[in-house]
């Protein structure tokens, strides 16, 4: 049986995990490698990227870890140049990095707004800017951007900067998709719903008004399935969009939310 990512070179940003367990970026990087890809695991936290690479290598896969702050034009350019030199091509760019800021316009500072938009949105501009020329050398390449249902729906607590960044990612993805549709480059995004990842413990507990256990209980209860999804649900969607199974799919936002956005109330 052919592996779905055989001979493909995949760059994942935020390929580590912010805490113990499986984040979306880490699970996606591991799944790409299980399907035969060579993975370039980038993270601002080199140790976190190395942990992901360790998992991949322990399973017999191929990956390297690189330190990169996706807010930096210079650092993003450097990693893309390294990919060009070391691997000679880039088939898939997976923009996973994203941070969350609980709060509305009265709660957050200008610096917090700027930082979130730089991490979540400017990063996609920078990686696309530097990676697309290399990707176009393939006649078949794909970008997978990590959005959120926050792009289109209110979560139940204010997170204005996060929602704005994700809405913009959807539009940016669609725009890139159409610009490059006749050049063999596809661009899609994933809109996860409420997922149980280390990130939610780190960023959003305060949005639910109680402790971590209370937050988990409330998030599970608000899903039509009775429980949150996890990083593997996101990773499987990413694998589909990145692979040739999705060759005629571009400019789409794939909702992975267990039905939560289809329900009223
Ligand atoms: N968990 C959810 O419920 C949920 C829901 C919707 C969307 N998402 C999206 O999923 C993505 C995050 O998934 P995750 O679980 O991998 O998160 P995570 O917080 O575990 O982040 C992965 C990695 O990103 C790295 N990172 C942070 N800032 C960086 C920077 N400036 N440059 C480079 N690396 C940086 C962290 O060090 C971390 O290792 C985000 O885009 C988020 O918006 C998550």
Plain-language structure description:
43% of the residues lie in helices and 15% in strands. The protein has eight helices and seven strands. The structure holds nicotinamide-adenine-dinucleotide (NAD). The site of nicotinamide-adenine-dinucleotide has 31 residues, from helix 1 and helix 6.
Counting DSSP H or I runs of 4 or more residues, the number of helices is 8
The fourth-level CATH homologous superfamily is NAD(P)-binding Rossmann-like Domain
Bound molecules: nicotinamide-adenine-dinucleotide
Rounded mean pLDDT is: 97
What is the CATH class name? Alpha Beta
Largest sheet, in brief, is:
7 strands, parallel
Q: Tell me the Rg in angstroms.
A: 17 Å
Q: What percentage of the residues does DSSP assign to strands (E)?
A: 5-15%
CATH architecture: 3-Layer(aba) Sandwich
Q: How far is the first residue's CA from the last residue's CA? A: 45 Å
Counting structural domains, the number is: 1
Helix content: 40-55%
Pattern of helices and strands: EHEHEHEHEHEHHHE
Spans of at least 5 consecutive residues with low confidence: none
Strand runs, count: 7
Shape: globular
CATH topology: Rossmann fold
Strand order of the largest sheet: 3-2-1-4-5-6-7
Counting helices, strands and paired strands, the structural category is alpha/beta
Brief description of this entry?
The chain is an alpha/beta fold and 265 residues long. It contains eight helices and seven strands, in the order E-H-E-H-E-H-E-H-E-H-E-H-H-H-E. The chain has a single domain, classed as NAD(P)-binding Rossmann-like Domain (Rossmann fold).
């Amino acid at each position: 049986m052919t592996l779905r990512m055989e001979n493909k070179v995949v760059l994942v940003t935020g390929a580590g995990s912010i805490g113990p367990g499986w984040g979306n970026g880490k699970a996606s990087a591991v799944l790409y490698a299980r399907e035969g890809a060579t993975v370039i695991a980038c993270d601002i936290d080199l140790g976190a990227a190395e942990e992901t690479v360790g998992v991949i290598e322990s399973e017999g896969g191929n990956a390297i870890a690189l330190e990169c702050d996706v807010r930096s034009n210079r650092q993003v350019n450097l990693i893309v140049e390294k990919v060009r030199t070391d691997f000679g091509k880039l088939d898939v760019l997976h923009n996973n990095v994203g941070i969350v800021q609980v709060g509305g316009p009265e709660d957050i500072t200008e610096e917090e707004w700027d930082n979130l938009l730089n991490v979540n949105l400017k990063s996609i501009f920078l990686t696309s800017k530097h990676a697309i020329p290399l990707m176009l050398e393939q006649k078949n390449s794909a970008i997978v951007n990590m959005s959120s249902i926050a792009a289109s729906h209110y979560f139940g607590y204010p997170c204005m900067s996060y929602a704005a960044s994700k809405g913009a990612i959807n539009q940016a993805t669609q725009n890139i998709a159409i610009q490059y549709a006749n050049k063999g480059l596809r661009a899609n995004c994933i809109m996860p719903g409420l997922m149980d990842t280390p990130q939610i413990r780190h960023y959003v507990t305060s949005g639910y008004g109680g402790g971590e256990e209370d937050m988990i209980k409330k998030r599970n209860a608000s899903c039509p399935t009775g429980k949150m999804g996890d990083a593997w649900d996101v990773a499987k969607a990413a694998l589909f969009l990145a692979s040739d199974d999705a060759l005629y799919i571009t400019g789409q936002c794939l909702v992975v939310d267990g039905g939560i956005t289809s329900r009223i109330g």
